[in-house]
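Review this:
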Amino acid sequence: MVPIYEQIIDQIKTMIRKGDLKQNDQLPSVRALSKELKISVLTVKKAYDELEREGFTVTVHGKGSYVTAANAELMMEEQRKEVEQDLEQAIFLPFQLKYEGEI
């Protein structure tokens, strides 16, 4: 099972990659998103911190978190990682299911 903060990161990256979130778009506040998702503020904060560390967002103290300028190379790398993960799942899932006796 994927941790919630990683799910948040993946969803925001996907929204940026698809163009649903553009440069300078403001993300929901940490408190608002944690309340909406009914999760800890610390979980959302961890996701936002990681997005900033990876260069997808920038946080302005007292103002919020914003999407940074799209870095084409960074976006392509993220997309490549996503495709690799999907391929790994497609390749190894049948073996895993057979091993677990579900096939």
